[in-house]
Amino acid sequence: MPHSDREYAWQSRLQSPHLGSTFHHGLPSAIAVAALCLVPTAVLCQTPGSTPAIEAADVARPSDATAPALVAGAPPAPVAPDVISRNDTGQATVRAVRLDGELKVDGALDERTYQTVPSISGFIQVEPDAGQPASENTEAWVFFDDDNVYVAARAWDSTPESRWIVNEMRRDSFNILQNEHIAFAFDTFYDRRNVVIFDITPIGGRMDGQGTNERNWNGDWNPIWEVRTGRFDGGWSFEARIPFKSLQYRPGRLQVWGFQMRRQVRWKNEASYLTRLDRALAQMGVFQASQAASLVGLEAPRSGRPFEIKPYAIGDLASDRTAVPIVTNEPGGNVGIDLIKYGVTQNLTADFTVNTDFAQVEADEQQVNLTRFSLFFPEKREFFLANQGTFAFGTGGGFGPGGGSPDAPILFYSRQIGLYAGREVPIRVGGRLTGRAGAFTLGLLNIQTGDEPTTAAPNTGFSVARIKRDVLRRSSVGAIFTHRSDSALTPGASNQAYGVDATFAFFDNLSINSYWARTQTTGTDGEDSSYSGYLRYNGDRYGVAAEHLFIDKLFSPEIGFVRRRDMRKSAGSLRFSPRPQSIESVRKFSWEGQFDYITNAAGFLETRNTAALFGIEFQNSDRFQLSFTDTYDFLKQPFLIASGIVIPVGGYEFHNARVGYNFGAQRRISGNVAVEHGTFYDGTKTTLSVGGGGVGFGGGRVELTPRLSLEPGLSLNWVDLPEGRFNTTLVTTRATYTMTPLTFVSALVQYNSSNSTLSTNLRLRWEYQPGSELFVVYNEGRDTLTSGSFPELEARSFVVKVNRLFRF
Questions:
Q1: How many CA atoms lie within 13 A of 433 on its CB side?
Q2: How many whole angstroms separate alpha carbon 698 and alpha carbon 90?
Q3: For residues 434 and 412, what is the distance between their CA atoms, to the nearest angstrom?
Q4: According to the 3-state scheme, what is the secondary structure of 364-402?
């Protein structure tokens, strides 16, 4: 039975009004290095008294009297009044300036300090003319006082504002990246690996998040900070104030951080950075901490141990006609603590949650699954999203700018916590410790869930321990352990998973990742291991990837996610992406070949896939894609693909062609339109999709005004098999009206013919003061199979939740 049908039925089924989602479920040398480098005194990986090794130049341990040393190759610190120095390789060192008076954060840049302190300028293009000066001038400043660090910029623009692409104000919307914007990043530990990133648009839209290991992105890191934008004759400006309390950094008054800025002139599809970068990093350059400028001159306050508490109160009214007995307009309410945050040390933070509630979480975007494997749905709950990059392991997921393998298992998948057999179970209490200790990154998590009578879910404890050690310049080795006290698959048993991994990054674009892991469930033994080696070179003109992945038939991390078990996969790809000089409208062509060969653990061929892809990236950011795939798939058991339609056991070979066009963000109507057709399990399949264009393309969007937008999505499948015909229809529309950058109302309406559902999720979010929010949420689910003029109501809820952040 495909996991996309009734198992996925109601995002929450409104099983509870509080969580709008349900879900489904080598390399010996690298492992040896991992074992060596996990020993804190290993001379191979760290010299005594040093912080994370950075090739030949370790960073000195900071003190109140001495700032950390600059990394090897960095230009010397600029001497006042200069604020930036550069070298011949395009690297830079910039100087932060202490304010000698008050700086009013209003976006106007009219204080005297902007006249007396020189600006940071000289941005360098990555796209379209890599290495050339930016065509639009940008002036920036970094200031600080006893409590805050300030970043300000004046963005000159040669075109009238009417031509700017500015249509997103909602905080943390990915559409911000499709607007004119400036981003800046701090590497506060100066480890040349991890950054915190801030994006700002001319109309005040803002985005913030964490980049981990120059690869993983966490957009749900939401620090307290303030930004205002303004206009001047010839462009736009902003001023941002970030409290030192909102950041973590190494001990010591004198600081050296990494610092990067990106200017995106979207109307001409130009990206430029403060330092010179390889053009393959055009969109992800702010993640590249190792390529960032060095920021000197900062004097950080001697902070105590910060303490924050965020209590909440909630009231709801719920109906559920699928429950026994039927629930009709049943009132409810609760109080609890969304978050308690305590600074154990300056670099280690403990977070706690009590009687946790997730009423504010948006419903999942539904998917149609015509495969025999589980689909992945991302985590959306705030407590689990914070610092999630700390717990990333191996090559699993294929998420983030560094890519990875979509078939590799994820050993810690937080959506296994708080859900059981598709229904929500209460989270009683939870705690997490994350941060750094010298060259080590640490993560500890423990969550206790309560019982749930409908599914007979028992009280269960979930524990995760993660440790990672920096080695070389941009590499790391680590280990992970997970424990579930009560197995979801074997009643009365417990489940553990453990493994070691290593990530090595060389030059700008070459990475090698590997892991070995094993699981253990009470009463089972053997056939429970997994390992992988993954190599990726992702240059601008050429790309190469190679992978070998093994997952045994009983490998089962029950706080993780495994898409496919009992497999041995060998895969590779080659890409050639020239930039034609004679075709003015084309920025880049791309030819790519991919090959996957998958057997079971015994060596029997189950899947073989060959793909050829061709793409064109135009100067105006439009994209064209054409692909052809040849697939062989062997079914070991019958496959129920739709109601009453079963594909029998056997081997099948089919072909598929796809053509798509992505309309760039410069258009009022943007997004991808694609059509594909081919053979499919001895039959045919035709697909039409409208909306999302995949990673890097952006989703479908219709700009009505800068405050009001629609994000439509459509997926239609026509499948004709010898066993029968069926069609699937998935329609999604998200409408968003943004009153201010911190206040918006959105509606997500979805119709899915696969499970005969029509669902609605309405949300109002108001951040009435920094870190404190009011949510009003309405969920509704209807069954479209029922007769009548309108689908029959199955479940409905109305929720009001308010929280308040207190900082001490």
A1: 13
A2: 31
A3: 15
A4: CCCCCCCCCCCCCCCCCCHHHHCCHHHHCCCCECCCCCC
Q: Is the pLDDT of residue 15 over 50?
A: no
At residue 440, the pLDDT reads 92
In the structure encoding, which two tokens stand for residue 776, read together? 């009003």
- Of the candidates 636, 573, 627, 631, which has an alpha carbon nearest to the alpha carbon of residue 607? 631
- Can you tell me whether residue 244 is helix, strand or coil? helix
What is the residue whose two structure tokens read 């050339």? 132
> For the segment 549-601, what is each residue's pLDDT rounded down to a tens digit?
999 999 999 999 999 999 999 999 999 999 999 999 999 999 999 999 999 99
Task: Decide: 93 and 294 in contact? Cβ < 8 Å.
Answer: yes
* Tokens encoding 566: 């009992």
Question: Per-residue pLDDT tens for 508-537?
Answer: 788 899 999 999 998 888 899 999 999 999
Task: Render pLDDT for 374-423 as a digit per residue (tens, 0 to 9).
Answer: 888 888 887 887 788 889 898 754 444 344 578 899 999 998 898 887 77
What SS3 class is residue 554? coil
Task: Name the pLDDT band for 19 (thresholds 50, 70, 90).
Answer: very low
Which one-letter amino acid corresponds to residue 192?
R
DSSP reduced 3-state for 60: coil
Helices (H) and strands (E) counted in the chain, each on its own, are 3, 45
Residues 6+ apart with CB under 8 A from 470: 52, 53, 191, 193, 439, 440, 441, 476
What count of other Cβ atoms lies within 10 Å of the Cβ of residue 722?
11
Distance CA 673, CA 697 (A): 11
d(CA 208, CA 220): 8
pLDDT in tens, 128-183: 999 999 999 999 999 999 999 999 999 999 999 999 999 888 888 888 888 999 99
pTM of the model: 0.81
Kind and range of the H or E element at 291? none
How do 806-807 and 307-320 pair as beta strands? antiparallel
Q: Which residues, including other chains, have CB under 8 Å from residue 283's CB and lie 6 or more apart?
A: 177, 271, 401, 696
| Tokens coding 359 | 């009423």
Tokens standing for residue 701? 């969007």
